[in-house]
Structure formats: structure tokens, C-alpha cells
């Protein structure tokens, strides 16, 4: 009689390390599809988190366990939607490879998420960040976020070798580990003259030839935000990217051009920067002719 994959797994793996073994197999499955390394790492982190909260090995979770976790309070809908996606990808793999016969995530309903809106820093707030007494490397991170529209992961991985001053371009790694060239803003070109010409702009502190983590960039800019006295909780280091997109939209730059600058996969991701600002609404109202009121 043949032995199923799940029976082999339960025979070979102790309950404490069952998750690690199945997640290693899931990682190989995803790499075979050429998924981005960041996606694979993020899914593992989310699945580990669910297993810890539920106090269950992943292969023993039921649909009710998944629903209870996704229903927990105090978590943004967008985060819950991402978690649901990770669970569904994992359990589809588990069924496909024979570790389970029933997919407990199949009955999970879509998560309703409010429409995305840009949450940019104002120019005055960015000036406050830059003038709050932060170190040079922190200022460089802020400028890369604003003038190049970089995500924190892109900021962390900038190298002097990526800057081509002659062609006015900057090489970066976008989502999906895709290498792309973007126009180099003049402010960043000037900044590059004072930064390392070769190697990482923001090297790790352990002496290895690696950059700092994106999470470290988030922490550093968040500290600058607090130092500048900016208290709005909706403003995050990612808001510098939103500032870039919003200012480009306000300046009348074509949506497709903004898409290429920000390296969005779809134009829908760029459309949040086309929302009409309060200033433009006011300008529109004030454009109406002035009529004299009757006496």
C-alpha cells in the first residue's frame, strides 16, 4: 500500500520542526515558479506568524482556524488580504504535492479593502525632516525616497556603481528582483559626488559586503520623522514615495511617465496619484467669474 506524502512527513518530522520542513519545500516550489525572493520570504514570515498565533502546525489548521486568525482585531484590511493570499498559496501547494487532501483555505472569502489613497509628506514636512539635525546618510535616504520615489528596499541597496552620471541614470532593483534603470534626479546626481563611488551607499554594520535591510531604512527615517515633530501616524517612510508620485501628478506629468518613474507593474497602481488635491479644487472654484451681489 502506498504511503501518502503527509504520512511520510508526519513519520519523519517531529511536530516542532514540521513547519520548517514543509516551508522549505514550499520555498523550493515557489522558486521553481521564479517568484521573487522577497515574496518567498514574506510568505514564510506570514505563515510562521499564523502558526504561532494559532498554536498549530500548518498542516493541522482548519478553515475555522484560518478564519479566526484573519478576523483578529487591530489589523489593517490590506495586511489581512496579504495574509489570506499567503495562506491560499501555501495550502494550494500542500494539496498539489499531496501533503493534504483538502485545502482549508479554499472557502476563505475575499477581503474587502478600501480604495488606496496617497498619503504623501508635504514639501514643508520633507524640509523639516532634512533640517532636523539628522546625519548625512539619513538625509541621503530621505532624498532617494522623495526625488527617486524609491521604496525602502531600493534605498537600502543603492550602490555607487549604480549611478551613471554621464547618462543621467540610476540602476535599481524593483519588485520581483527586476533590474531597471531610471532617470537620475539632479539633486541625487549632486548627492552622489559625496557618496561612495563604488560599493554600497548604506553598508551593513557587521563588516560584511552587504547592504542594510529595508527595515533598517524604515527605522532610521521614522526616527527622523519623530525628531522633526511630525506626528501623523499615516505618514511612513513609504510616504516619501507617495510624495514623489503626488508632486509629479500635481505638476501635470503624464500618468504613463509617472508609472515608468515609479516602476509600477500596472497603471492602476499609479492612479492613486491622480486624485484631485485640495489646492486644485480651490483653484477650480476660484476660477469661476465673480458676480456682483444684488443690493
From TrEMBL:
<feature type="domain" description="Core-binding (CB)">
    <location>
        <begin position="17"/>
        <end position="95"/>
    </location>
</feature>
<dbReference type="GO" id="GO:0003677">
    <property type="term" value="F:DNA binding"/>
</dbReference>
<dbReference type="InterPro" id="IPR050090">
    <property type="entry name" value="Tyrosine_recombinase_XerCD"/>
</dbReference>
<dbReference type="GO" id="GO:0006310">
    <property type="term" value="P:DNA recombination"/>
</dbReference>
<dbReference type="Pfam" id="PF00589">
    <property type="entry name" value="Phage_integrase"/>
</dbReference>
<protein>
    <submittedName>
        <fullName>Tyrosine recombinase XerD</fullName>
    </submittedName>
</protein>
<dbReference type="InterPro" id="IPR044068">
    <property type="entry name" value="CB"/>
</dbReference>
<dbReference type="InterPro" id="IPR002104">
    <property type="entry name" value="Integrase_catalytic"/>
</dbReference>
<feature type="domain" description="Tyr recombinase">
    <location>
        <begin position="116"/>
        <end position="286"/>
    </location>
</feature>
<dbReference type="GO" id="GO:0015074">
    <property type="term" value="P:DNA integration"/>
</dbReference>
<keyword id="KW-0238">DNA-binding</keyword>
Amino acid at each position: 500500500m502506498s504511503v501518502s506524502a503527509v504520512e511520510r512527513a508526519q513519520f519523519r518530522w517531529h511536530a516542532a520542526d514540521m513547519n520548517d520542513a514543509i516551508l522549505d519545500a514550499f520555498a523550493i516550489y515557489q522558486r521553481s515558479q521564479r517568484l521573487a525572493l522577497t515574496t518567498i520570504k514574506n510568505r514564510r514570515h506570514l505563515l510562521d506568524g499564523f502558526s504561532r498565533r494559532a498554536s498549530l502546525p500548518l498542516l493541522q489548521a482548519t478553515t475555522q482556524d484560518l478564519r479566526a486568525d484573519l478576523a483578529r482585531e487591530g489589523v489593517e484590511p490590506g495586511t489581512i488580504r496579504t495574509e489570506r493570499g499567503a495562506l491560499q498559496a501555501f495550502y494550494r501547494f500542500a494539496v498539489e504535492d499531496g501533503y493534504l487532501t483538502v485545502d482549508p483555505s479554499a472557502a476563505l472569502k475575499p477581503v474587502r479593502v478600501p480604495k488606496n489613497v496617497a498619503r504623501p509628506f508635504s514639501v514643508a514636512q520633507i524640509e523639516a525632516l532634512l533640517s532636523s539635525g539628522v546625519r548625512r546618510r539619513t538625509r541621503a535616504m530621505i532624498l532617494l525616497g522623495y526625488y527617486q520615489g524609491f521604496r525602502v528596499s531600493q534605498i537600502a541597496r543603492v550602490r555607487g556603481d549604480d549611478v551613471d552620471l554621464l547618462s543621467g541614470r540610476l540602476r535599481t532593483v524593483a519588485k520581483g528582483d527586476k533590474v531597471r534603470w531610471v532617470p537620475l534626479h539632479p539633486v541625487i546626481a549632486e548627492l552622489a559626488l559625496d557618496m561612495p563611488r563604488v560599493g554600497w551607499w548604506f553598508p551593513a554594520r557587521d563588516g560584511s559586503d552587504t547592504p542594510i535591510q529595508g527595515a533598517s531604512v524604515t527605522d532610521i527615517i521614522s526616527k527622523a520623522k519623530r525628531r522633526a515633530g511630525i506626528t501623523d501616524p499615516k505618514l511612513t517612510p513609504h510616504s516619501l514615495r507617495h510624495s514623489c508620485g503626488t508632486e509629479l501628478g500635481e505638476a501635470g506629468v503624464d500618468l504613463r511617465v509617472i508609472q515608468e518613474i515609479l516602476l509600477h507593474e500596472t497603471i492602476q497602481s499609479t492612479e492613486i496619484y491622480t486624485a484631485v488635491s485640495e489646492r486644485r479644487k480651490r483653484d477650480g472654484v476660484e476660477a469661476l467669474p465673480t458676480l456682483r451681489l444684488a443690493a
